[in-house]
Write a structure and sequence with these properties.
Layout (H helix, E strand, L loop, with lengths): L1 E3 L6 E3 H54 L4
Antiparallel strand pairs: 1-2
């Protein structure tokens, strides 16, 4: 059976249309999962950056104390 797809705007076999919609739904789900993973990774990066900044400030403070530089 030939179908004109409303979303794609093309005429093709009904099975092909169904397969394209299925593949699109799989890709959308995959994109959602990748976005969630990217968001999680971004939060981890921000946490690590905060930790490293704290370590840097602590090291600078110790360096000032040990060098006798009291500002």
């Amino acid at each position: 059976m030939i179908t004109k797809d409303k979303v794609l705007g093309v005429t093709m076999e009904t099975e092909d249309v169904a397969m394209l919609h299925f593949k699109a739904s799989v890709l959308e789900e995959s994109a959602r999962e990748m976005r969630a993973r990217a968001d999680w990774l971004w939060e981890r990066i921000k946490e690590e950056k905060r930790y490293l900044m704290e370590c840097k400030m602590e090291a600078e403070e110790k360096n000032r104390v040990y060098s006798g530089d009291f500002r």
